[in-house]
Design goal:
heterodimer, A: alpha+beta, 10 helices, about 25% strand, globular, B: mainly alpha, Arc Repressor Mutant, subunit A, 8 helices, about 0% strand
Chain lengths: ~350, ~160
């Protein structure tokens, strides 16, 4: 190569002022670990061509957090043999005949709460968003952070982010999204607290605006999801969910409930579909009342959940206000201590509240 | 996961070059992988270019009150304060005087190692426009740092 060429000379000059020229391996390793931890396998199930596509739950709400990518126990395990999967795949080719219904369902107590909530939901009409108004979805989101340094020391805590989204009546209009940024809020040991303080993690509040909800330049998956499409018949709805989540997660039933929770927490689900989702949850084997008086973000409801018995040892729960049938939120709770998080920790939760607003920030 | 292995370091450097400090770069980088994973995991293997598309948008949304070029210049100045020998400041000043568009094409090419085709994909412009800007930026930089501009190398 001709070292006198302009291109080469400029290359040399520019590399001499490259701010990234002296990045240490430690610095790279730290970021690598953190962005690995940000990749959350539970959301693999979301984008789907048919049936339900969960709208941009992606950016608004943290999905169940992967605690540590390097922890083999947390790897996603498909428990089915190939032969079993083939049979199941044949069964669920359509949503009329499928996994739903014939393998048992939720406990009687859980089914009662869910079916009552569905009855109340079906009777309510969603507040109408008139032209010029916004559907406002306010949420508190918590999820786990876990990091380890090269010397093997490990740190963990929970982060909180408040989110406030304004969706215009005309969904192709400008959406507004206020995010508080993540702030470490809950610690389980002094070492991690000191570590987080030393990192000086400052929340970076954001006020985002995007037509059609295409925040971060995404394909606008919020609006891409056509929530009028999924079946309102709970049996067919559940089959269509199984069809989409099959082979993901640690069990077909666990993943189906995760799917329902993910969809509900968007706050975008119309009343008739919410009711159908409740009824579908009532048909999932292993679903039970896990806490009669569950507190989420200061509101109390009944926790309906399902324990994942596999390596995850996690309980996915929906928290429902039994008086109104309204969803308070959802959470994912560790049923045994894991990588320093005590048993009972809700490593991810989202509490939502929807209303109609005349104005947006 | 493969996409992460293949792209993380490049994306981190991309942010490190365009934001004020390591902590910001780390934040934005993890945001990219979170978004990519959640939004795009179902749509096939994530290519480096798809991830950079997300990275570009994350950067654009990052702290809307501070313009991106201000960030870039801030990073350059910080670097200069830290370590740069005197002769480098001429290059930095020359960079600062380029138009933001020309500068970005130049830096995507030389710092981030993109081909003109990739730069045009990333910036949603034609490859011809990218080559023109690159030509212009190199020429301007050559003048600004007061060395003899030479025949344009075509080896990019």
């Amino acid at each position: 190569m001709n070292t006198n060429s302009t291109a080469d000379r400029i290359r040399r000059q520019l590399s001499s002022v490259d701010p990234a020229a002296h990045i240490t391996d430690d610095e790279l390793a730290r970021s690598r670990n953190r962005s690995l931890a940000a990749m959350q396998p539970a959301t693999e199930v979301l984008p789907e061509a048919d049936g339900i596509a969960v709208p941009g739950e992606t950016s608004t709400y943290p999905a169940p957090t992967k605690l540590s990518e390097r922890r083999p126990r947390r790897a996603r395990i498909i428990l089915m043999s190939a032969a079993a999967a083939a049979v199941v795949a044949a069964l669920i080719a359509g949503d009329v005949i499928g996994l739903a219904g014939w393998r048992g369902g939720a406990t009687a107590q859980a089914a009662e709460v869910l079916n009552n909530a569905a009855q109340m939901t079906i009777k309510t009409t969603d507040p109408k968003v008139l032209p010029g108004q916004y559907l406002r979805i306010k949420s508190t989101n918590v999820w786990a952070s876990y990091t380890s340094e090269q010397d093997g020391s490990e740190y963990r805590w929970l982060d909180t982010e408040k989110s406030d989204m304004y969706i215009p009546a005309d969904r192709s209009g400008e959406w507004v999204w206020q995010r508080s940024g993540r702030v470490p809020t809950t610690f389980f040991d002094a070492k991690s607290k000191a570590y987080a303080q030393k990192q000086d993690i400052k929340p970076s509040p954001e006020l985002l605006r995007a037509r059609s909800g295409a925040f971060y330049g995404g394909p606008g998956s919020w609006t891409a999801a056509d929530l009028s499409k999924p079946p309102r018949d709970p049996y067919r709805l559940l089959n269509s969910i199984y069809k989409q989540t099959l082979g993901r997660g640690q069990s077909v039933d666990g993943e189906a409930l995760v799917f329902i929770a993910d969809l509900l927490r968007t706050g975008l689900v119309p009343a008739d579909l919410r009711a159908a989702l409740y009824k579908a949850a009532a048909m999932i084997p292993g679903v039970t009342v896990t806490e009669g008086q569950a507190n989420l973000d200061g509101r109390t409801g009944v926790a309906i959940g399902r324990l994942e018995e596999g390596p995850a040892q996690t309980r996915q729960e929906l928290i429902i206000d039994p008086k109104t049938g309204l969803l308070i939120g959802e959470r994912s709770v560790l049923s045994q201590a894991q990588i320093g998080f005590p048993a009972g920790t809700a490593t991810t939760w989202t509490a939502i509240e929807t209303s109609v607003s005349n104005t947006a920030p | 996961m493969a996409a992460h292995t293949a792209s993380h370091d490049r994306i981190y450097r991309y942010f490190r070059r365009r934001t004020a400090d390591a902590a910001t770069a780390e934040d934005l980088c993890s945001e990219v992988f979170r978004i990519a994973w959640e939004k795009l995991a179902g749509s096939g293997e994530l290519s480096v270019m798809v991830l950079f598309g997300v990275a570009k948008n994350v950067l654009r949304n990052h702290d809307r009150s501070a313009s991106r070029s201000a960030d870039l210049l801030g990073a350059l100045r910080a670097e200069r304060r830290d370590s740069a020998p005197a002769q480098d400041s001429a290059v930095q000043e020359a960079l600062e005087r380029l138009s933001p568009d020309d500068r970005e094409v130049l830096l995507l090419t030389y710092w981030d190692g993109f081909t003109p085709r990739e730069v045009s994909d990333l910036l949603n412009t034609s490859a011809t426009a990218v080559r023109m800007r690159l030509h212009r930026a190199r020429k301007a930089l050559g003048h600004l740092i007061q060395t003899q501009p030479q025949a344009e190398g075509a080896e990019l």
